[in-house]
């Protein structure tokens, strides 16, 4: 299905390649570069490019292009999902996924790619299995290996590979047994000029960090599971239990993973925890004026934190002079990006900013007003009202420590002016 | 034993000779090398290749030669650590893939191949990686390693057996195909499921190496399909798909096992399995939508289906909740092409909407699919029906037509209405890339109807207001407004008003784009009007409305004349005036003045504008010609003798200017028009000129399609495929088979279907424990 993979950096350098079938010459990437030249921005590259003999399927992440080559019909999502999985695994192994790390660990990367795909068909993509086959590089292990002559490659078959729970390795042992759940909700919203909500949706995730010994069988229930419009699960979750009882029942993988993601939108009303009042105008004489004011709204007693506003100004704006009642602002004259870092909004306070905009003289007035992108986080609150009811563990004797954390943040939260 | 050492020494001898040759070659290229190496090259080449001097004995630091010798001595060393280090260097050279490092790495083949016997796991793995990369190019030497693989295949450790099989089958050397076949056959009977899985993976490799072995290979696949672990089955199905996808009878006995084990497959296996089952079901079950009324069971409101058909739908449903987008897409496809329409509901829409919140690449693919799901083209359906009726006439086309009809099948049910509640999910966000924005526009256009159009239009207006940094998108938005108008007749006036209000925008590009869209709109409307007149002549209200719209447009555009600079837009304005000056009073009134303005600046205008100015001049002349009087509407007789005389002079002036224009197109056109006009006073010259110049316009629909680049046409390819995304046939694309007319024998699936399977049973047991 996948013949070859090329990894390309931002300066059009093909610095890594791997072939699972016959070698496809790297000149095939020229078609990719041609397509890249036609794009305005780096991320705008079409995900599928047809060349005379091959098809290139591209994923852009972390400033790197992962270009898979295929010669025949294949579901494009299959390849894209796989490429993202590859990047996830690199992230997991090296802590990040960038050019220098991939170059530094090129042997491990090559081994991993070989283990993940056989003859173009995915073989092992579970991080737990891979980690047993090829141990992630750590400084300690590198030293230990040179002294003892041991290797990073396992000589035995991973235990998980054969079991019914391939995502979990056998013989896990912890002195402190802990299970942490983070319920993170991102609000995607469009607020129009007059302040009314055009659309608002919540994209939520439950991320887990589970360090439990043995083979624990967990079940997690919510107080209000009817809230979810749509959900997707890690393969460990038993679908039937969810269908019948709305309980998440699963044998967890070891370590960090995303248990579930959910979507609340369209049908349910989403509350918007922040309001933005704005006035931006451009005039021939004296440039323009702008005034922004923000404040909390429907926050259920929690405070807004890490608030920041980003505005990409029109090209003719030279500079801005602002007075802020709170926080700092910065303006980049090249990218025309104005950022106002507000920070924490104390209850009762209404941070505002006011000032003038300098326009390039002689140039025509900007035609359109910019869009304001708002960022914020609210701790200890899931804006949808989601609440975890209880977590039960079966199959093991010990008493684990269980913790749940809620966090709401702005996803793609924009205000049109 | 003996043989292998002998061959190894042979290999090293061979390599030495080759080294001498390559050494001289590389150095001719390497100008950066030091003088010593240069001298050496000369002496070496002068004494010929038969030179006794061993190239390895000369040590040249920092030259590629030295590096190679270094590597070689490390590979030949007795310590595993050294070998490992050398292999790591080689592998990172391969990974980099640069031509220079590639050839260097390849030269080491004879030295690497000897290490295949090592006991060190990591070293072995690296040697295997190396062999897989270069065995194809170094076929003869690669054969030396075969015996070692054969030994490893008997190893008690399943990991070693599996990896030996993997490498053995990855060596693309045709001679060893029989050895591979034996190895795969043995491994397909292995105790360890992991080895059996590897055997399944190896099957396609062998098949591509030697397709003549197909029959033998199919028997192995048959055995693997009998397996009971989902781990093996996923790969077995993949092998089946690659080698013998048409042999669906092999699936019969295992169908029920596949359906019940579906959830236990890994994500990638699920995708392959779902695709295979879809094809299977299309050949084994009858169309669930063929005779709905009769088969509706009254108990559960579910359409009565073959139990196996029903269980496939039921068991695949939970997979819509998979985290893997390609699994979700495969289930959506399965439902679209297999489920009764009554059961296709928001069930399949919600997961697709969820995928819009994932990675951008996934978004683009999903949006493309939604766009073609929501698009309906009425003409297409009419065409189909027509073709369906005529199917007997030409058998060649018949097949295609039926196929086409099948592809549109899902669209007979109203998928659009399913997506409508989620319309807001397609609103454009500031960070969307241009591709995503344009796809979302397409979907919004597709979803527009008379009730939601105010909301959509307001959105479109906001886009035009807010996103002027991206002009490509803004013009697409304006075109989208036009498309909304032509899609739904009732909302066309609303859209046109929206477009007209854009004419007063400050941005010139927006204004020009709007004018161009308006032009196509009014031409289309005129046509509808004529059709209407033909069908029901008494309904004159519609034509009145169009006229008032034209009046409005004319009023707006005449005001714009001075502001607009873009030649294309300017030409369009003049064209609109010319087109309507015999039909619309406002246009007629405005034309002389515009013509006067244009005459003043005629010489400085672009050719396009000049041509249109002449067009306006001619038409105005013909409309105001005195011989016209009885033929024309009385209202249009607004100019007195003096005015007409002035218009005539103006027209003459323009043609005189055109006569001496630089561009010969303009000169030509001027002469042509002038001849036509001169003859107006003779006989029925006027009627002839009018028949030439003022003939009714042809329908613009064809134009429209090419302009919008098949945006409105649903793709004829299967959802979720590469061909669908690219809208062209990709090698390996396969049409879905049609449902059979008569239900095939369902008892074929009885086979082994009854037996219990190990995988999910264990699951249930845990579930029960929890319940207690």
TrEMBL record, chain A:
SUPFAM superfamilies: Second domain of Mu2 adaptin subunit (ap50) of ap2 adaptor, SNARE-like
GO biological-process terms attached to the record: intracellular protein transport; vesicle-mediated transport
Compartments, as annotated in UniProt: Cytoplasmic vesicle membrane; Golgi apparatus
InterPro entries given in the database record: Adaptor_comp_med_subunit, AP2_Mu_C_sf, AP_mu_sigma_su, Clathrin_mu, Longin-like_dom_sf, MHD
Record's bilayer topology term: Peripheral membrane protein
All residue ranges annotated as the MHD domain in the record: 176-416
Swiss-Prot/TrEMBL keywords: Cytoplasmic vesicle, Golgi apparatus, Membrane, Protein transport, Transport
GO CC annotation: clathrin adaptor complex; cytoplasmic vesicle membrane; Golgi apparatus
PROSITE patterns: MHD
Main location: membrane
Family that this chain belongs to: Belongs to the adaptor complexes medium subunit family.
Protein name as it appears in the record: AP-3 complex subunit mu-1-like protein
Annotated organism of origin: Dinothrombium tinctorium
From TrEMBL, chain B:
Main location: membrane
Record domain Clathrin/coatomer adaptor adaptin-like N-terminal: where: 67-678
Gene Ontology cellular component annotations, sorted alphabetically: endomembrane system; membrane coat
Feature: compositional bias, Low complexity: 379-394
Keyword Transmembrane: no
A GO biological process held by the record: intracellular protein transport
Pfam families: Adaptin_N
Protein name in the entry: AP complex subunit beta
Keywords for the protein's UniProt record, in alphabetical order: Membrane, Protein transport, Transport
Keyword Nucleus listed: no
Classification via InterPro entries: AP_beta, AP_complex_bsu_1_2_4, ARM-like, ARM-type_fold, Clathrin/coatomer_adapt-like_N
Locations listed in the record: Endomembrane system
Organism taxonomic ancestry: Eukaryota, Metazoa, Ecdysozoa, Arthropoda, Chelicerata
